[in-house]
Amino acid sequence: MTRLLPEPTPETRHFWEGCQAGELRLQRCADCAQSYFPPRPFCPACASRNVEVFTASGRASLYSYVINHRPRPDVSDQPHAIAVVTLEEGPRMMTNVIGCPQTPETLVLDMPLTVTFEKQSDEITLPFFTPAKG
Amino acid sequence: MKPRSIAVVGAAETTRLGKIPELSVIGLHADAALNAMADAGLKPADIDGVATAGESPTAIAQYLGITPTWVDGTSVGGCSFMLHVRHAAAAINEGLCDTVLITHGESGRSRVGAVRPPRVASSLIGQFEIPYGITNPPTQFTIPALRYMKTFGVTEEDLALVAVVQREWAAKNPRASFKDPLTVDDVLSSEMIAWPFRKLMCCLVTDGGGALILTRAERAKDFPQRPVYILGSGESVETPMISQMEDFTTSRAFRVSGKKAFDEAGIGRADVDHLMIYDAFAHLPLYGLEDLGFVGRGEAAAFIRERNTAIGGRLPLNTNGGGLSYMHSGMYGMYALQESVRQMRGIAPAQVPDAKVSVCHGVGGMFAASGTIIFTNQE
Predict the structure, then answer these.
(1) CATH of domain B6-113+204-376
(2) Window B:48-67, CB contacts with A under 8 Å
């Protein structure tokens, strides 16, 4: 069963193309230097249209989560975490933390994470996060 | 809004609450509206303003036979009705209409004539949240809680206690869905839904409706019921995406809406006798108590533990049993408003003695929107 997948729009296409290329692409305001997410063609802090796309470090920390014990069949048949992470550059995003047990003992708030990409379809690759090594 | 310029002169819920398979969504709106009109001694021809959420005001006006000169279809989730009260007060004071009917009806359990909002894959939620497995509110509204708990040392027992104390209130209410006593252990051994949230920390899913009728305060004494005046009001929105909430330990929409209402009312927190905080989940009263300024940041769990919000406490909270025990159709804000009105009329099943000021605070979406109404029975 395929996950419910995103349908990119003109304003978000760079993000999804970045995921296909193995890059987490954020945007930054060239006027006020604010980094932001989700994508839009202007700065949410100062409304400037003078914005640029850049590749984020992929480093993040675990901000909060729940472990869904009634998982959606297209996502998992086991309880799994739905998490929000804080990216090193500041913005937050929802994701899944993969490659580790989906338990409160393993998933400790503020733990360092690294982005990883998994292809879902010809068009869509999703960004997930795993516990940082070392 | 000028304090005490507008009054609630009609208020009622659907004839029954809980499981009502014989009525569709619009039928629930109508049942509540007819009850509220009977409560106020009014007919549809006496109503010239209509506000509603879920259904369109057009559909409600036509179904009930009302010809309005003002309508409001603000639909920002479960607190929409708080916003309708606020907008109606402004509209009446501006002379756009004189007598406003606000309706709610929802077949949350039986799903008769109910439509589920579609998942749109190209929306921002569809692109940046839905792919990760969010389902319904239990996997969205709950996500900030763990950060709140870590920041302030709040435990699962503290969350459970919110449900336990509200069940004590529900026990006094014949119309409450759940009235049997509950212990912290009962809550912590109920089914795991989305850790750290268990089933008894999540709201009910029921059928029901409610309606309010508002008019100018100077007319209020001509109606059969004790008038309940609007003292202050506030509203705000933050984000439709839970992941983009500014700070998981406090709601900006709560703070903005609450401050606006208290500033308008010109009263302090100590002047409040009765409080309703929309409790879709057990953490919401904690955020509400703090973000409305009744306690400091991180102090709400202890405040509840010390039984300040319980029967006999100094700030009775969610006295109908709340969304956790009374009922929750999906957009619960209307029922919180109904309980505030009952308390101000002095007719609530768990009546707070001599209550003169009631604060009713609602949430819409998942911390997405907020509305606050401050009522008084003092002219």
Answers:
(1) 3.40.47.10
(2) none
